[in-house]
Amino acid sequence: MQLVLERRPERSAVIAVASPLIAVALTVVTFAILFAIMGKNPLYALWVYFIEPLTDPFSLQEMAVKATPLVMIAVGLALCYIANVWNIGAEGQFIAGAVCGSWLAVRTNGADVGYWVLPAMLLLGALGGALYALIPAICRVYFGASEILTSLMLVYVANLGMDYLVRGPWRDPAGLNFPTTAAFDPVASVPTLVEGVGRLHAGSIIALVAVMLVAVLLGRTIMGFEIRLVGAAPKAARFSGFSANRLVLFTFAVSGALAGLAGIIEVAGPIGHLDPGVSSGYGFTAIIVAFLGRLNPVGILIAGLFLALTFIGGEGAQISMKVPLDLTKVFQGILLFYVLACDSLIVYRIRLVRTVRKPVHAAA
Amino acid sequence: MLDASSQAGSSRSGPLLSAVSISKRYGDFLANDSIDLDLFPAEIHALLGENGAGKSTLVKVMYGLIQPSGGELRWMGQKIVLAGPSEARSLGIGMVFQHFSLFEHLTVAENVALGLPPTDSFAAISERLEETARVYGLPLDPKREVWRLSVGERQRIEIVRALMQNPKLLILDEPTAVLTPQEADQLFVVLERLKSEGRGILYISHKLEEVKRLCDTATILRLGKKVATCNPRQETAASLARMMVGAEIGEVKAAFGRTASIPRLVIHKLSLEPDDPHGTHLKEISLEVCGGEILGIAGVAGNGQDELFAALSGERLSAGEGNIVIDGSAAGLRDINERRRMGAAFVPEERLGHGCAPRMKLSENALLTGHAASGMVKRGFINKLVALAHVDRTTKSFDVRKAKRDPEAVSLSGGNLQKFVVGREILREPGILIVSQPTWGVDAGAAAVIRQALIDLAARGTAVLVISQDLDELAEIADRIAVMFHGKLSTPLEAAAATREKLGLLMGGASAAKEDGEHEAKYAVGA
Question: At the top level of CATH, which class does the domain A12-349 belong to?
Answer without folding.
Answer: mainly alpha
